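> example.struct
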């Protein structure tokens, strides 16, 4: 940079987390407004490349993101004002707080918080005023007396409805209980009858249980009995076989001789009987024709007799049907008489009822539209008033905006003129704290180091006035925009409500015309018409009900008359058919008798069938006899030979069976004695398993049915107690339920109608309550911000925050102090005073004013490092600079200070010292000097720069 140049440029290269950045800033002179240029580059693969947007705001954002802090915090963290901390350490409590406020920047924070709290309080106050204005503008005119009557009636109905509902519920419960009781009485009688019938079977079941037990014992003995029985049978069989074999042998021998005689006699008898059988067969062939005629006529007589019996039954049934139809016709005539009597007591609704049914829904809709129209008119008036107010506010905002805009333009022209008149002052206007002045080379803003320029103060005043004018112009713009938005919103609401009101009025007029056309009257009363409609509807309903009863009775009478004529005709037809069948039966019987007489002459007293069967039987007997006698002769000869062989075999089997029987009889007798049975009892106990299962099933069914019936009888008896009822009582309860339900429905309809009317009246009241609740909430919020603004303006809140921060600062500073003093000193904060704890003197505590120059420097440096650590919020910075506080140190203290700074530099930090003391610079070695020349300034580096 060179003084007086038309273009100035500066660059800075820095390293963050092993990433290297290069930033440029240039300034070029122009007649109206100077041009500033910014550029940021990032090293990628050993080359610098442009980084994103090249605007000041974007570049600042990238650098702040890389460092983890903004410019103000960075300067406070990197540049440590060690001299201020020396004054802070030894100063009074009030002075320490001022210094700490300045170092941390709390003064601006507290001012911003107080300003924001005051601004918020003003905004909330404006909202409160707006809500109060809305409450003033609300139309609270209500028909208080009518609404009070409606509420009283609604409350009365609300109290009565549960009672009426309870009455309906109680009536329904009582009806259900009576129906249930009647059913229980019927069930109890049925189950008691079943139980009595079941108890009659108890003796049979007891006897059946005894038989079942004996049968099961008999089953266990069945295997042994089977063996014994088989042995007995074999013994008896073999004994009988011996006797039979011996007897058979004799008999077979005798039979063989007799059979020879019988066979000879049979052949002689066949020769004698054959001619007699042929003569009998010829006589039967003549009687066969008459027998067939007899069978046919006999079958026809049986059919006629059966048909005659059926017709007699039909005559009896038809006679009963005639009597029943006559009784039914008399009953229907009585019902018709009753229906005519009931019908005469009512009249139909006719066209008047149809007219009222058509107009009532229109009247209800007409009432709703009428109330809505009145409400919309009130709302439209309110919006019109608000729109007039908003229009006035909008005009005021426009005038204020034009005035602010004119002032802003005027102040900006004056500021530009002043900057052009003083170029040097314009250069200083772009400097930041800590920058070198481009005019004189001094450090900005130390006023005692910079020579005063003639018009620099005027430019700052003009800039301040210009900023204030811009703020006022911005506020005026916002106020104008808000007023315009409010006006347009209200205009939109006004248009919408005007449209809605016009539509509702048209709809109301249309509904009115429909009602007039139907009623043919210009005036009417909705409730009176509704009452008239209800009365007509009730009469018409009853009339239609009994008219239906009458028509039904007439139809039933007509059906009964047709039925009576039909059954009478059926009876007459059946009687005629019965007489015809009786005549036909007599004729068939006469014909049958004639055939029987003829057969008697041909066959004698016996019938043809018997004679035919006897003839056939005699023929078969003769044939069978010859065949039989021949076969018997051959058989008796063979049997005689077999009898001889069987006699020998039977005698051997008898000996074996006798031995087995004796052994099994002894075992069987022993088993009977064990179960206390005799053989006779055992024989009686034998029953098949299927029959035993049937007995067991009968016993189980009996026990189950008895328990079930006893349980049902007891349950129903306990439930019924001494209560009783009948069908007539249930009819009475049903009438009570119907009456109670009708009363409840009427009360419910009236209650719902009142609720609708009350809800519409309550809507406006709720709006007022809602606004009042909003106002109360906003007033509480306003009070909170006013208290906060008041507390922030006082010192109490700031003292609390600073005291807490000061204690944290001491804790961090102690860590640095122990490292710098080789664990000797620890910093303490007690009773708003700073002290050190000397670990080399057994933990002795003493005031910081007793420390030597080097010890004081180490302590104040620890506080500066602690503040840097707190403000960086954990960000790792490899460099720091220490400013001020070295000019008043003697040579020995400077040597001690240089040792501390060198030890600090060994802790992975690059430490820079800003000083005008040559001795300290020589102690530190590496020096960076800024030298001024006529053409500008330059940097000179001596020593080794790492």
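> example.seq
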């Amino acid at each position: 940079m060179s003084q007086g140049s038309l273009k100035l440029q500066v660059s800075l290269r820095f390293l963050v987390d092993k990433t290297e950045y290069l930033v440029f800033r240039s300034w070029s002179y122009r007649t109206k407004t100077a041009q500033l240029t910014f550029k940021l580059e990032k090293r990628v693969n050993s080359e610098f490349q442009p980084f994103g947007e090249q605007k000041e705001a974007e570049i600042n954002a990238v650098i702040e993101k890389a460092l983890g802090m903004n410019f103000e915090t960075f300067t406070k963290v990197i540049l440590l004002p060690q001299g201020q901390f020396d004054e802070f350490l030894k100063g009074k409590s009030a002075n320490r707080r001022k210094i700490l406020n300045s170092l941390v920047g709390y003064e601006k924070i507290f001012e911003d918080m107080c300003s924001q709290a005051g601004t918020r309080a003003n905004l909330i106050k404006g909202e409160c005023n707006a809500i109060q204005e809305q409450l003033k503008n609300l139309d609270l005119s209500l028909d208080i007396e009518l609404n009070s009557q409606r509420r009283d009636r609604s409350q009365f109905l609300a109290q009565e409805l549960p009672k009426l509902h309870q009455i309906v519920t109680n009536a329904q419960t009582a009806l259900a209980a009576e129906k249930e009781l009647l059913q229980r009485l019927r069930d109890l009688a049925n189950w008691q009858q079943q139980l009595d019938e079941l108890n009659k079977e108890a003796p049979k079941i007891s006897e059946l249980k005894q038989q079942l037990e004996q049968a099961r014992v008999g089953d266990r003995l069945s295997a042994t009995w089977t063996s014994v029985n088989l042995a007995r049978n074999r013994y008896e069989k073999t004994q009988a076989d011996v006797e039979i074999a011996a007897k058979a042998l004799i008999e077979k021998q005798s039979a063989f001789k007799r059979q020879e005689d019988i066979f000879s006699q049979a052949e002689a008898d066949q020769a004698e009987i054959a001619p007699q059988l042929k003569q009998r067969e010829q006589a039967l062939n003549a009687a066969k024709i008459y027998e067939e005629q007899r069978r046919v006529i006999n079958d026809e007589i049986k059919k006629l007799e059966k048909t005659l019996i059926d017709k007699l039954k039909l005559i009896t049934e038809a006679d009963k049907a005639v009597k029943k139809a006559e009784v039914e016709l008399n009953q229907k005539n009585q019902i018709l008489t009753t229906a005519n009597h009931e019908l005469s007591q009512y009249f139909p609704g006719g066209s008047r009822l149809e007219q009222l049914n058509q107009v009532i829904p229109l009247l209800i809709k007409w009432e709703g539209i009428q109330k809505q129209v009145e409400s919309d008119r009130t709302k439209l008036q309110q919006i019109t008033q608000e729109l007039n107010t908003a229009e006035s506010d909008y005009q005021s905002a426009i005038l204020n905006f034009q005035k602010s805009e004119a002032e802003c333009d005027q102040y900006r022209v004056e500021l530009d003129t002043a900057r052009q008149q003083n170029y040097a002052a314009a250069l200083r206007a772009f400097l930041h704290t800590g920058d070198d002045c481009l005019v004189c080379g001094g450090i900005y803003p130390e006023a005692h180091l910079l020579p005063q320029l003639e018009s620099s103060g005027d430019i700052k005043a003009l800039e301040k006035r210009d900023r204030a004018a811009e703020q006022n112009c911005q506020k005026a713009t916002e106020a104008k925009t808000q007023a315009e938005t409010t006006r347009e919103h209200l205009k939109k609401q006004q248009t919408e409500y005007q449209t809605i009101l016009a539509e509702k009025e048209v709809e109301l007029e249309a509904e009115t015309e429909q009602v007039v056309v139907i009623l043919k009257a210009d005036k009417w009363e909705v409730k009176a018409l509704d009452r008239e409609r209800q009365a007509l509807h009730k009469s018409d309903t009853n009339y239609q009900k009994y008219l239906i009863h009458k028509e039904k009775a007439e139809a039933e009478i007509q059906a009964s008359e047709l039925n009576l004529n039909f059954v009478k005709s059926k009876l007459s037809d059946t009687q005629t058919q019965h007489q015809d069948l009786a005549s036909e039966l007599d004729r068939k019987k006469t014909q049958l008798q004639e055939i029987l007489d003829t057969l008697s002459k041909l066959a004698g007293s016996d019938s043809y069938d018997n004679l035919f069967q006897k003839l056939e039987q005699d023929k078969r007997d003769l044939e069978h006899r010859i065949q039989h006698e021949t076969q018997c002769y051959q058989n008796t000869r063979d049997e005689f030979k077999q009898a001889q062989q069987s006699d020998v075999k039977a005698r051997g089997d008898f000996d074996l069976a006798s031995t087995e029987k004796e052994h099994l009889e002894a075992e069987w007798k022993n088993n009977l004695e064990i179960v206390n049975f005799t053989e006779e009892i055992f024989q009686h106990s034998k029953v098949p398993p299927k029959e035993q299962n049937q007995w067991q099933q009968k016993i189980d069914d009996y026990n189950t049915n008895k328990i079930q019936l006893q349980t049902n009888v007891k349950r129903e008896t306990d439930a019924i107690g001494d209560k009783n009822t009948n069908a007539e009582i249930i009819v009475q309860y049903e009438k009570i339920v119907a009456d109670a339900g009708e009363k409840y429905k009427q009360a419910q309809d009236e209650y719902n109608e009142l609720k609708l009317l009350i809800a519409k009246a309550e809507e406006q009241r709720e709006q007022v309550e809602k606004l009042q609740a909003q106002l109360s909430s906003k007033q509480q919020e306003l009070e909170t911000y006013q208290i906060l603004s008041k507390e922030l303006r006082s010192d109490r809140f700031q003292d609390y925050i600073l005291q807490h921060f000061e204690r944290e600062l001491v804790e961090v500073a102690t860590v640095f102090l122990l490292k710098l003093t080789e664990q000797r000193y620890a910093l303490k904060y007690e009773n708003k005073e700073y002290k050190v704890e000397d670990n080399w003197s057994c933990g002795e505590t003493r005031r910081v004013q007793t420390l030597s120059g080097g010890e004081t420097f180490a302590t104040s440096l620890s506080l500066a490092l602690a503040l840097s650590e707190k403000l960086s919020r954990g960000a790792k910075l490899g460099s720091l600079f220490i400013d001020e506080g070295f000019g008043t140190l003697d040579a020995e203290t400077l040597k001690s200070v240089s040792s501390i700074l060198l030890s600090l530099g060994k802790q992975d930090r690059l430490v820079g010292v800003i000083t005008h003391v040559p001795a300290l610079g020589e102690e530190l070695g590496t020096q960076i000097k800024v030298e001024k020349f006529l053409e500008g300034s330059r940097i000179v580096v001596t020593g080794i720069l790492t």
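> remarks
The CA atoms of residues 345 and 543 lie 8 Å apart.
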